[in-house]
User: Fold this.
Amino acid sequence: MIKEIKGQLKAGKAKYAIVVSRFNEFITARLLGGTTDCLKRHGAGDEQMTVVWVPGACEITIAAKKLAQNGKFAAVICLGAVIRGQTQHYEAVCQQVVRGIGQINYGSKTPAVFGVLTCDTLEEAVDRAGAKKGNAGADAALVAMEMASVMEQI
Assistant:
């Protein structure tokens, strides 16, 4: 018989780190609310969550890397909102954050979950932070729980 490993959508006793960008806080605070609400609905207590605020999206990766390497957390959830402006800055920030979170996953036993919105407009960011298109923070929490479960079984 083929052995199958599937993640569970329950918080269990695992601890979760959540790194949140303060830049665009009116969006990222909604993402954080979705994340913590989802974890609580799946059995996590406040003591199982540690929230780390960083200045901007580019700073998410250094905090997430340290949290992923310290062995205290089952997953690190990275939350931010990068909204396209009039300059090329948007592309540079998005590339750096995507690459940085990917590198954490390549170099750590702890999964880093990408919950950073990359949006063309403010309206799109609002929609993805709890309005018309759900809450990407809650989605990131689900991924974190599932990956934590998978990693525990491997």
